[in-house]
Amino acid sequence: MRPTVPWPHAPTHQLSSRGTYFVTAGTYLKAHYFYAPQRLDVLHRGLLSVTRDFSWDLEAWAVFSNHYHFVAQSPRDSEDASSLSQMLGLLHARTAGWINRLDGEPKRKVWHNFWDTKLTYEKSYLARLNYVHQNAIKHGLVPVANQYQWCSARWFEQIASSAMVRSIYRFKINRLSIRDDFAPVLKPEPPFPKRRSTGALQNATRELNR
Q: Residue 81 above 70 pLDDT?
């Protein structure tokens, strides 16, 4: 049975007094460890799971072969965003362990760092929401954002009003200064070598979900 995706609740699309953040994280040397659909499924599900478990309210996200972005509000029961580092540390440890077991590379460094920006201006916040929703188009992976299944565009279009979708998609994003020189890829998982062909993907996934 395919694991369920922990979709977040509908966002408010308003800046939070406790803190709304734009976050980017990249793999070590921008390597494409999550290049295939099955790998992206795990990273995507992992991001949605840890943000739920740490009570961060996701508003937009996009997950790729060598990086991810998201916009989220910090926990309602906290005065600051101090849990961000712990939350992403857990996500990176889990997904690095999973991908390294899958590839038979137990000591490989997978994640490099993350960068966060606290959003304090409404226009900056809304523009970055649109940037994340549309990011797969920027990277040339799809012609329409909602066709990329590892981002929030389709979810956003389903849960928000038509007026809200049009309003946010209207914001210009070409002049935003964002660290995003990753050039992600998307390609099929190659056949496993015979010595690893018996359940390598299933075994790695089972360990991740323990």
A: yes
